[in-house]
Design brief:
heterodimer; A: mainly alpha; MetI-like fold; 13 helices; 0% strand; globular; B: mainly alpha; 76% helix
Chain lengths: 295, 286
């Protein structure tokens, strides 16, 4: 007993119990449900085992694969643009000496916004009738309102803009913290040796920033699914499913169509997608950390 | 010198553009909250507001008849109450449990330690909507759907991993020798923790708390499915309820949006210095 009280387990137990009850146990229920034809309207179907039927149907379901592909593409484009913009902003703020702290504080502004608020404010800005953007364009002679959230392609771009607005600052703030921590000696030594700014950036700044890039990516990949809130608010997956992401599809299948079994099968696939993203960046983070400590 | 001046102008122009991009959407929402519906809907657009008023806020809070759209469709006060109770309770419990867990990870070595740590972090990656499905099934069977308790429990689980991560990073910064000295002087382990390690990691715990609060306050995907009525619906769900109206009351929605953002803004500016160091500490030096 004394050994137990002095060991790590007494400290970790509360954490492990809560996570087991609220995450692992539901995941098991979810796994079981994905092997049943469970519908909310017919409670008995929860106990009927049908094997891999839901998954087999999903493989042949074109709507599902379109949503899946759109989600992966959406994340790939959004995360890369956020990284590039974040890096640009961090380099910019790093150059500014007067008012740097004020700028950094302003940069944190979007981080406090709930995704549902982000969705709302951009829904308002992109509104084709009274939105800020169309009103603004009108002053410049674009009388015909542009249907930002009604046209399939434009709606995807609008949602992407909202997503990038809300998450770029995470990258900017973390990369700026990295930039401020770079030791000055190697930078000056490189300048004295005649490196130009691009060479300094490529060979010194960037390698030093890499762990910060991966921290930002890891933190960001933890909550990629917040895009669900934004899409739900801005378009609800429409028009005609043109902005449907995996998560909005799951919610529609589970709660609107009440097909819980099928929705759980889909959500397992979405969980693996999220874990794969996080795992990849976490692995990269560990790798770059080791590299830094060797040097 | 000319090149330098040009560079300076370039930097400042882009900085100003950046500020405009960041601030405009939020400020536009705030401004709209004070404008009459007629102005908002006007064609051609009215840029300079003709008159500003608190009507929307009055309608929202007291359901008065002065607002341009009559009664507010959302019982904001009960949603506000739910939001406050749920966010504060879940933050408190998550920070309590998570700090203890973080201390366990920072101060002990055991088998598969990194494995456990990664497992705990991975629970956080599960999309809210995916997790909501089985929790919905489970909670409706045991009868805690649409209650504060149910949602608080879920939020606690949502916030523990990040708290463990942040506090683990901070506890590692404190040399073990400090508490060991205290213990040879006759402190118990608990006293050493309470008097030495806890005060030193205060800023880490504070930032973990702010993060937990923001996550709870801003969460939508889980609450929207686990909350069914005014008993447990929060402000974010309330904002979504507005869109179910036949004609969207934009100024009313903006007023509610302002209401949601203010506590988050205040809290974050209070502790913004700790936030960045908290995040990078835990991450790089781990």
């Amino acid at each position: 007993m004394k050994k137990f009280l002095n060991g790590p387990w007494v400290l970790l137990l509360p954490t492990l119990i809560i996570l087991t009850c609220v995450v692992l146990l539901p995941l098991l229920i979810s796994l079981w449900t994905s092997f049943t034809p469970f519908k909310l309207t017919k409670p008995d179907t929860l106990y009927r085992f049908v094997g891999f039927r839901n998954y087999e149907r999903l493989i042949g379901d074109i709507d599902f694969w379109i949503a899946f592909g759109r989600t992966v593409l959406f994340l790939a484009i959004a995360l890369n643009l956020e990284l590039v913009f974040g890096l640009g902003i961090a380099l910019l703020i790093n150059k500014i000496t007067y008012g740097q702290r004020t700028l950094r504080t302003l940069m944190m502004f979007p981080m406090m916004f709930s995704p549902i608020l982000v969705g709302f404010q951009w829904k308002y800005i992109f509104n084709d009738n009274i939105g800020l953007l169309n009103n603004f364009l009108r002053e410049f002679g674009v009388i015909q309102p542009i249907p930002w959230l009604v046209d399939g392609v434009l709606a995807n771009i609008s949602i992407m803009a909202a997503e990038i607005w809300s998450s770029t600052s995470v990258f900017a703030i973390l990369l700026l913290a990295g930039l401020l921590g770079i030791p000055k000696d190697p930078l000056e030594a490189a300048r004295v040796d005649g490196c130009n700014s691009w060479q300094v950036f490529k060979n010194i700044t960037l390698p030093f920033l890499m762990p910060f890039v991966f921290i930002a990516m890891t933190i960001r990949s933890l909550d990629v699914a917040r895009a669900y809130d934004i899409v739900q608010m801005m378009t609800g997956g429409g028009p005609a499913k043109r902005t449907e992401l995996l998560w909005t599809l799951i919610s529609r299948t589970g709660y609107v169509d009440a097909k819980m079994g099928m929705a759980n099968a889909m959500s397992y696939i979405s969980i693996f997608l999220s874990i794969a993203f996080t795992f990849f960046f976490f692995y990269k983070l560990m790798q770059s950390r080791q590299q830094l400590s060797y040097e | 010198m000319n090149k330098k001046q040009f560079q300076n102008i370039l930097i400042w122009t882009s900085a100003i553009l950046l500020i405009i991009l960041i601030m405009t959407p939020g400020l536009w929402v705030v401004l709209t909250a004070f404008r009459p519906q007629v102005d908002v809907m006007a064609k051609p657009p009215v840029w300079i507001p003709r008159n500003l008023s608190f009507n929307q806020f009055e309608t929202m809070l007291f359901g008065g008849s002065e607002g341009s759209m009559g009664r507010s469709p959302v019982p904001v006060l009960s949603y506000l109450y739910n939001s406050v109770v749920i966010s504060f309770t879940s933050t408190f419990v998550a920070v309590l449990v998570g700090t203890i867990g973080g201390y366990g990870f920072a101060r002990h070595n055991f088998k598969f330690k990194n494995g456990y740590f990664l497992m705990i972090m991975l629970t956080r990656t599960i999309p809210g909507i995916s997790l909501s499905l089985p929790i919905f099934i489970l909670f409706s069977r045991i009868g805690i759907i649409d209650t504060h308790f149910g949602i608080i429990v879920v939020f606690v689980a949502l916030n523990i991993p990040f708290t463990v991560w942040l506090t683990d990073g901070f506890f590692r910064q404190i040399p073990r020798a400090m508490s060991e000295v205290a213990m040879t002087d006759g402190c118990t382990k608990l006293q050493a923790f309470w008097h030495i390690e806890l005060p030193l990691s205060k800023s880490g715990i504070a930032s973990a708390g702010i993060f937990a609060f923001l996550i709870s306050w801003n969460e939508y995907a889980l609450v929207s499915n686990l909350a069914r009525s005014t008993d447990s619906k929060t402000l974010t769900v309330g904002l979504m309820d507005f869109t179910a109206q036949f004609t969207i009351n934009w100024p009313g929605m903006c007023a509610l949006a302002v209401f949601i953002i203010i506590p988050a803004l205040l809290l974050t500016f209070l502790v913004q210095k700790h936030l960045v160091s908290g995040l990078t500490f835990g991450g790089v030096k781990g």
